[in-house]
Amino acid sequence: MAIIGGGMAGLSLAAELAELDGRLVERSGGTRPPLHVLVLERENQFGYHTTGRSAAALLESYGTREVRALTRASRTILDALGAESGRPLLRTRPLVWVAREDQLDALNTLLTANPALRAADRDGARTLCPALRTAAVARAAVERTAQDVDIEALQQLYRTRAATAGVTLRTAIGLESGERGADGWRLTTDRGDLHAGLVVNAAGAWADAVAGRLGVPPAGLTPLRRTVAIVNAAGVPPAWPFVLDVGDRFYFRPTSGGLLVSPADETPSPPADAVASPDAVALAVERVREVTTLDLGPVRTSWAGLRTFTADRNPVVGPDPKQEGFFWFAGQGGTGIQTAPALARLAASILLGEPYEVPGLRKSALAPR
Ligand SMILES: Cc1cc2nc3c(=O)[nH]c(=O)nc-3n(C[C@H](O)[C@H](O)[C@H](O)COP(=O)(O)OP(=O)(O)OC[C@H]3O[C@@H](n4cnc5c(N)ncnc54)[C@H](O)[C@@H]3O)c2cc1C
Fold first, then answer.
1. Where does the record locate the signal sequence feature (predicted)?
2. Residues 281, 217 within the same domain
3. Residues 45 and 68 reside in one and the same domain
4. Residue 274 alpha carbon to ligand 1 centre in Å
5. Which of 44, 54, 366 maximizes ligand 1 atoms within 8 Å of its Cβ, making it the mutation to test the pocket?
6. How far is the CA of 193 from the centre of ligand 1 (A)?
7. From the CA of 51, how far away is ligand 1's center (Å)?
């Protein structure tokens, strides 16, 4: 089986799949032949694209109903993985959704959909983040147990687990095209030909392009560029919350010695090595200045990445309905880190025909159509 893409999606699935397969082989008393899993990553390093560019947050009240169910399940797995490995993967950083007077309807909708959120008045929000301007926040909603994710450690953990379970992990090899024959796929790469019984498409922003290379119709994915910058900001305690506009116009949080800011932009882009535009960086700084009293200094660094969405903003996970031997694992959008653990287990269970339930998740909502 060939997994195309070595970001968080491809690596987490490779580890879960190979480990589950190992347990099934053991259970069969050795009568079941083990699966050979191969991950192909075009870049020279894993996680170079979207995975390496995230804001590293786990927010249980963020995203569609399906995404929130996957995030809750992933939270439990991440706690357990951190405890097992002796290196915690999460660190608590509360999330404060802020709303102006004219955004109160949106805040109420959010509070209704997320019973774990606590409503806070202006003073409550300013107790958590005293730099918020009075005029910028009328009410807020607080997720006390939101987390920062140690993405480097998580990615490393999945790589190690995948390699230990027998997965072949290759970088600097790009899939060019492929043809399905009676015995599976003949894949052409820029490093020669390969054979695979099944192809898993975990190619992030390139997932529709990868499908096209194999003659499979697209899933209708849209990559949207998002920009992040780190600016100098005097007097920002590291424990301040993640502050997110309920209308998705900005977010910010402390990061080592500065402030991470984003205009929460969603600019359509072809699949590419995304670059931050100076305008988007300036907008991030301007919007955070508008809502806080912080003295924001020069921009230290900035980057952009592509968040890739389906039309309904749920990931697409499952076998292609028309093309035998082609499995979708794409459309992780803006939550592919916080949903990765449960999503990878779900995809592995579908691929190997084993049961796996995520409480509150309608699996059919993720099925390719
Ligand atoms: C600014 C920003 C902030 C974010 N913040 C968060 C956050 O706080 N929390 C959260 O959960 N998520 C966040 N995300 C989203 C998260 O980063 C993504 O959902 C996740 O990284 C997607 O992982 P992926 O493996 O699908 O994609 P990628 O990491 O892009 O991996 C896909 C890989 O496929 C490879 N590939 C493509 N075509 C081929 C080919 N033909 N052959 C071989 N390889 C190929 C690419 O080189 C790439 O490495 C954020 C994203 C951005 C951009």
1. none
2. no
3. yes
4. 11
5. 54
6. 25
7. 4
